[in-house]
Fold this sequence. Notes:
The complex is a heterotrimer of chains A (289), B (338) and C (249).
Chain A: H1 20-36, H2 46-68, H3 74-77, H4 83-109, H5 111-116, H6 122-141, H7 143-155, H8 162-191, H9 197-221, H10 233-245, H11 254-257, H12 260-284
Helix pairs in contact in A: 1-4, 1-6, 2-4, 2-7, 4-6, 4-8, 4-9, 6-8, 6-12, 7-8, 8-9, 8-10, 8-12, 10-12
Chain B: E1 39-48, E2 51-61, E3 64-69, H1 76-84, E4 91-96, E5 111-114, H2 126-136, H3 142-152, H4 168-180, E6 186-190, H5 198-213, E7 217-222, H6 225-231, E8 234-239, E9 242-248, H7 249-255, E10 261-267, H8 270-278, E11 283-289, E12 292-297, H9 300-313, E13 318-323, H10 328-337
Parallel strand pairs in B: 3-7, 3-8, 5-6, 6-7
Antiparallel strand pairs in B: 1-2, 1-4, 8-9, 10-12, 10-13, 11-12
Helix pairs in contact in B: 2-3, 2-4, 3-4
Chain C: H1 13-28, H2 31-52, H3 56-93, H4 98-101, H5 107-136, H6 140-167, H7 171-183, H8 191-194, H9 198-210, H10 221-245
Helix pairs in contact in C: 1-3, 1-5, 2-3, 2-5, 3-5, 3-6, 3-7, 3-9, 5-6, 5-10, 6-7, 6-9, 6-10, 9-10
Amino acid sequence: MSTQIHDLGYRAYAGERAGVAWAVRSLAVHSMRRILGLKRAGKHKIVPALTIGFAFLPAIVMIGIAAFVPAVNEFDIIRLGDYFGFISFALFLFTAAAAPGVLTTDRTSGMLALYLASPLNRTTYVLAKFIGIFSVMLLVTVAPIVFLQVAFTLVGSGPGGIVDFVASIARAIVAGGILAAALTGLGMFISSFPKRWGIASVAIVATMLIPIIVAAILTEGADAPDWVMFLSPPDILGKAWEHLIGDPVNNSLALDRLDSTLVVLAAIAYAAVFVGLTWWRYQHIEVDR
Amino acid sequence: MTTPPPPPSSPSQPPPPPPGAIAQPSPSQLQPIPADALVVVDRVSKFFGDIVAVSDVTFAVSPGVTALLGPNGAGKSTVLRMMCGLALPSSGTVSVMGQSPRSNPEIAAEIGLAPQQESVFGHLTALQFVRASAELQGVANADAEARRVLQLVELDANDQRFLPTYSKGMRQRVKLAQAIVHEPRVILLDEPLSGLDPRQRLHMVALFHELGDQGRAVIVSSHVLEEVERFGSNVVVITQGRLAAQGDFREIRALMDNRPRRLRISSDRPRVLASALIGEDNVSGVRFSGDHIEVDTNDVVAFARAIAPLSKRVEARLFEVAPLDEGLESVFKYLVGR
Amino acid sequence: MTAVEPRPTTISPVASIPAFYRVLLRGQLTRGRLFGLGVLAGISILLMFVGRGVAAFDREQASVQLLSDYSIALLIPLATLILATPMLGNLIEDRLLVYLWLKPVPRWHLAVAAYAAVVTALLPVVVVPIVVSAAITGFGGLIVPATLAAVLGVIAYSGLYLFLGVRFTWGLWLGLLYLVLWENVLSRFSNGMARLSIRSYLNTVLEQGTDVSIPLAERATWSSFLIPIAVAIVAVALTARALARTDIE
């Protein structure tokens, strides 16, 4: 063995560089962790835990009934199509917590400038944030229904046959995916304006609640035409979800009378518009640090 | 600020430390408070959950400029906040002019604070900000006083720009202006020279001294030693939440007798002189540094008496005998590194 | 510098509260917030025009229901949430409260000034549109109860949300949860829960003043006036207490 003194001073990194795709992945994972409060103090886990728990609650109730009281049809208690209505507040609150938490803080802390000084540009930054928020949104829009279908199948109340089972899972994924994409886009677009996450949260909730109330007042109270419901994104997203799940609710309201194909297309359009608006907003946002 | 003598020992008290040793502050040895002290911090501790931010700190501040010195995270800002009443001590007491700043809001009229944070009101100009501060302090002619102090800190009172557009140095000066507009007796400044250019620093330091000469207690918190040396020689050194030392930093240096003094000696025959110095009992180390010799000595007084005859004996001419570690940096390194 | 001049060590509320008020009010009326509040207020007026289009025998019911479902249920609490919670909450978050706190005044001066700033900012943004909305319906008997309900709502929500903003880092979120979960969902399940809903007292004022039956209006008449005021007084007192006890950054 020869005798050597090793140079332990500064050296530049000469290894492989993973590129923009890895940067996007890293930022998306970081955003997911932040939303769920992972690797943070316990208090940051409360809101996501409560909202996710609330989203699963009807499913747990239905499975409990199916498992322990087989004589009772669980769908007499909660219809699949009603699921969205039961958890809609949890969805709104989760969106109001998720998007501002990962977007406004980047602008107020100066991290956005640092991200844009990295291999990420404005488009890939928005993409990374979308992937992060969207992935977590799937926990409340897709996971409860998939959990429900799997559990029903295990207790013997689910779809008969492998084809029907796969179809039900696929419907849950598609329906929940469109819903998650639209809510993510809406949350991100609104969060791109205020610098305070609290104000962004209030704005998101207001944007969800006000159209529901206004559309209901116009169509039920003022006999406005049914197409006015297309101007209420939360209503359209919920109804599209019902149609895609395969169990639309019909209470003879204006929303229920709309053509199902148009409703689904409108929901997809809303998702695309919100995401597009977010991308546009971030092309023009001023980075001041 | 003077270092009071240790109290007489008694059977129930621990024996006083030997002469020259650095006094270890403890609850059982309460130092007499100077008669002119404006701020007294008495056995103050501050806990944030399990974190001890400040532990059993006791000192008094008299009129003049006093530097609150310590590394980042030492607890200086926490001590400053407790001195203003912004934070409640977990134990111990803080008094400003004899009153608790926490429970007596009236004493805020005698306290001026320029905090460390850079954030400012986004909707106010410099004049509006300082004038509002003056109004809330009950200053008569708030507008005129605001203009006067803004001029004092070399800012334009007629500038219509809002504060967020100001540079860091300008914000520092605005903060200082609002801290002194009501002419408080106690002025607390947290990192006040940060962001200022050299000329502005000189001007501000002169202002601090002027305020101190007027009988006010100006307490300046900093971890930048070059800044602190300009404020004067009174220091309170805090490290890891504890009081490490207080008083004139030169006197603190004199008390550090377990640490050799280092001197630089310039001579026409350095090697001959170095050989002779090694044989001296009070020399613990000799090294060459370029054309100079650096000597470590445990007894600087004896060394000072011995160096001239020694040089004469070896026929070496002395050009310079200068201390290398009399400055604040040396004191600081020693206190913080213990 | 000049020699120290004598000055009072405590400032009277007549001097300090207006000074606090001016600093606080100016800071909250940003363009974004005014735009958002304007949209909220504009919707209430727009909806009332719609109410006029309803067939005559439904018109009074529709108008009162509109006021309850939108103006009282959403406009007042949302607008208050946007202004009241950040009034002092933002100063705490931005570490600016020190400049207002370290003054020789009792803490209640600051709490009262903040509350006054919230209420006076909300009056033109919330109460005036509601009064205009009520006037648009054409029913003169709706204007007074609508105005009373709006004023009481502003009084109560302002105090509550101001306190939440000071006491809790997540004050705005707590206010949102109170609005969305408690007032719009849980209070419908029991009368007991409705007692803790400010909205139920405002609906009672509306129902008692118009003789039109609306949900969540089962409170006694005297309590529908007294409770919102009591909520505001207690909340402002708690705000002052929180300011006195909390550590300031």
